[in-house]
Write a structure and sequence with these properties.
The chain has about 300 residues and is mainly beta. Helices cover about 5% and strands about 50% of the residues.
């Protein structure tokens, strides 16, 4: 059994990558401060920075760290900043790596200050970031992230009572865009399958350009008579980075009867070209429906 003075450690990784829709231009580099939130926490604004910059140019902007805490016993926190490269892999997972290790890294272009400071509850703390693009920078998107985290030696533990220790790690991601940008989205393949009470549609998207696209996608399943059986309205997909591929399955909660269906997947890459529509046939057999029903029945049986 755990003793009364056991210490509970909880690490919260808060990676604010695509939640904020804040873009910062080189002409107006100073973002607005974050509004105070109703609950306690630490946040960065902007969480996403997109700057189009010519080779050989420099600009300075501010990333605001907002420490809002409502608890009466909230204490100052010592934080440290660092740079990481980042990317999105083929399966849509955000990956971080050491600075200047991934292709098209912008980490060497950034200088930030302060690198370490104490933040106090109820205040917004400014971190100045200077971006200097080298004269020989290649066209396209160059990526980096500013990581803010709590120092490990900050945590003081009282061994005589239970404690929950929360450590913050946040990221403001940067897209530094060097002109002669190209965006060239394509739908490479489309698969559909019925599994129990779901229809799973898996498109493979590709960006043959050198700059990110943010596809808008929608989905519709129709029967042989053209009647819509199920659909997903248009929404923004994950970002598709330059030169990358992305597989992001879409799930429809719908049990299909045996028959043949058409699955229509529509994607607007917002790259200046017309939207693309892919169509694939989905055949649902009696055997598939029976197997799904038997599986559901077994799952719902009471356990002895």
């Amino acid at each position: 059994m755990a003793s009364a003075n056991k210490i509970f450690r909880v690490t919260l990784v808060l990676l604010f990558l695509f939640i904020a829709v804040v873009s910062v231009s080189a002409q107006n580099p100073a973002p607005e401060a974050t509004a105070q939130a109703a609950s306690s926490g630490i946040s960065l604004a902007p969480a996403r920075v997109e700057l189009e910059m010519q080779p050989g140019t420099e600009t300075t902007m501010v990333v605001n760290l907002d420490y809002h805490a409502n608890a009466d016993n909230s204490q100052p926190v010592r934080i440290v900043a660092s740079l990481n490269d980042w990317t999105i892999d083929r399966n849509g997972q955000v990956q971080f790596a050491r600075a200047n290790t991934l292709p098209n890294s912008a980490s060497p272009w950034l200088i930030y200050s302060p690198a370490e400071t104490t933040v106090t509850p109820g205040n917004v703390h400014a971190i100045r970031v200077t971006i200097s693009v080298p004269k020989d920078a290649t066209p396209g998107d160059h990526l980096t992230s500013l990581i803010i985290e709590q120092r490990a030696d900050n945590i003081k533990l009282n061994q005589n009572r239970r404690q929950m220790v929360i450590r913050y790690r946040m990221a403001a991601v940067f897209y530094i865009k060097v002109p002669q940008l190209r965006r060239q989205g394509s739908l490479e393949s489309l698969r559909a399958e019925a599994k129990g009470d779901q229809v799973i549609v898996t498109p493979l998207l590709k960006n043959g350009g050198n700059s990110v696209v943010r596809p808008l996608t929608s989905l519709k399943v129709t029967d042989n008579a053209g009647v819509a059986i199920a659909e997903l309205p248009q929404k923004e997909s994950l970002p598709l980075l330059g030169g990358a591929e992305l597989i992001q399955p879409l799930v429809l909660d719908k049990r299909l009867n045996p028959g043949t269906y058409n699955v229509k997947y529509r994607v607007d890459f917002q790259d200046g070209s017309r939207p693309t529509e892919g169509i694939t046939e989905l055949v649902v057999t009696e055997a598939m429906v029976s197997t799904a029903s038997n599986s559901a029945g077994e799952a719902n049986k009471p356990k002895p």
